[in-house]
Amino acid sequence: MAQIRIGVIGGGASGMMAAITAARQGAEVTVLERNNRLGKKLLSTGNGRCNLGNMDMDPGHYHTEQPGLLEHFLKRFSTEDTISFFQGIGVLLKDKGGYLYPACEQAAVVQDALRYELDSLHVREITECHIREIGRDGRTGKLQVSTGEKTYLFDRVILACGGQAAPGTGSDGSGYKLARQMGHSLIPVVPALVQLRCGETCLRSVAGVRADAEISAWCGESCAARERGELQLTDYGVSGIPVFQISRVVNYIMREHREVKLRIDFLPDYGEAEYARLKAARKLLLQEERTVEEFFTGLLHKKLMCLFIRMAGLKPGDRIALADPAAIEKVYGLIRRWELHVTGSNSFESAQVCAGGVPLDEVTKDLESRKLPGVFFAGEVLDVDGRCGGYNLQWAWCSGYLAGMAAAAGERQGAYAQDTSA
Ligand SMILES: Cc1cc2nc3c(=O)[nH]c(=O)nc-3n(C[C@H](O)[C@H](O)[C@H](O)COP(=O)(O)OP(=O)(O)OC[C@H]3O[C@@H](n4cnc5c(N)ncnc54)[C@H](O)[C@@H]3O)c2cc1C
Predict the structure, then answer these.
(1) Which residue range is the domain that position 39 belongs to?
(2) Distance (Å) from CA 171 to ligand 1 centroid
(3) Which of 286, 308, 314, 343 pairs with 237 at a CA distance of 20 to 30 A?
């Protein structure tokens, strides 16, 4: 029987996994990659250490419009499968509090190991090849992909172009355009896992401060998202893991031209009663000779404390004994509930992933397009985004594997088959 010819558009995490999987099934695979080498984005993942999975694979760590469908995909390629796959291509892994990394903590080895495996399976790589068109060739019935200048024909195609986060690594949003050409709709795409920008100019005085905090996003009086972790203050807004986690929700609200406020609690371990006791105990420090700054010292980072003192209308050098008790109370209030007005997020350039994409109900249980059969999807181009912690790469491995298996399978396994599943 003639080999099935598969073209993989995009040689990122999901495309490399799809190509390896399909080639292992005996398909003749070509990866078409717009960069001059495969796996460029992998190098910047996990701050160069590549957090490639997570031991806690609760589907609740993902966002999509179709959680039921996603769960079905996630179950078919688990973290254990990721571990066996990487061990199988020689990469030792380590588990750091549930987060999976290559043991040497070097993303480059993950990229190298994937490329060596592609080589050993004789997967053809065509680099500097930016695919702009996709469709069916009327004459041969094969799938046709084209750069505009060069055209390639395949039996099956796997679209693994990523989203449009970090476009410098190659994912410039062209996967969405190709999906649209095929007749797919798109769940609106917004930057996710990204810094938020705020209107308060006073942020400049606290830029660089890091603090453990709880941050919540509010639309009117309803709380849209809440996270705890290390917050980083910047001159334009807020950053850090908890901010990344809530950023997709904030961006979707702002897309509807609704206002979002952030509330930050810098002492999230204190309940109301405990906080009242803490304030009562500190009354002992209300001594004649202490300044306002001296009185508040020890509660928070010095720069933040000075900012809150000024925001409450006090001066750090004033004597605390003469300070207005309402102003002292205001400082205590700001520590628990500092409000910032969001003006937007940083752009796709700074985002780690995109939220939105091709809806999961427009693909079959084998990730095959319901619009152009024979084309399979993998990775971030689909409407799936995960929390920080290795979830996005796990989705890339999982969807790449499933798409590669299905694309390489015989005709009755999904490709070209009339799909009747919901
Ligand atoms: C700074 C940063 C840090 C991250 N850290 C982590 C982490 O530690 N853990 C984690 O789980 N996730 C992390 N992510 C997210 C993760 O890297 C992505 O979710 C994942 O790489 C998506 O895989 P993908 O294959 O769908 O897309 P990509 O990896 O983006 O690959 C898409 C590929 O397709 C190519 N391409 C695009 N369009 C075309 C076209 N038209 N023709 C030909 N080629 C095309 C691109 O050049 C690219 O090589 C991070 C992301 C960033 C930006």
Answers:
(1) 5-188+354-413
(2) 6
(3) 314
